[in-house]
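Q: Convert this sequence to structure tokens.
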Amino acid sequence: MRRLLLALPFALLPLAVAHAHEAHEHEHGSLGAHEHGVGRLNAVLDGKALELELDSPAMNLVGFEHTATTDADKAKVAAARKQLENPLALFNLPKAAGCVVSSLELNSPLFGDKPEADHDDDDDHDAKDGAHEHHHDHSEIHAHYQFTCATPTALSNLDLTQVFKTFPATQKIQVQLIGPSGQQGVDATATAATLKF
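A:
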């Protein structure tokens, strides 16, 4: 019994360190930081090709970051996935632009995708726990879309209103826009959700 008690403070250490690290990131607000309420979107319009890449903490889209085990949680993940699988509606792309989805890729530990570093199944379970620990803190949902737009001139702007409505826990999206007028970095919010290409 005594050995178990001694081991406990060490078991709690990684969590404390992870939380300190997260607080540290919040303080500095670095671009790569995983912040709840903040997503990132890269949007590139090149001729008829439109590419959108959305990265968001799972918390913003489904309300939690752990693996869904209950039916209610699984339903939330399935609902979010369904929304993400309909980007024409989610990103409110104007019908006049005639965009069709040419490729769509969704990745997240919540969708049962394995974390990148976790390919080796023969690892002892300590390493597994470590990998799981990290993903529990920082579950991201990554969506990558490519569209072919028949009339790209109709895409004068990108309207993210629907994204904020669909995922109300998202307060801000850091957008990198590359289009005919060059590259710009903009923070979109629910009240300022339309960005000009």
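The chain has two domains: 1-33, 35-196.
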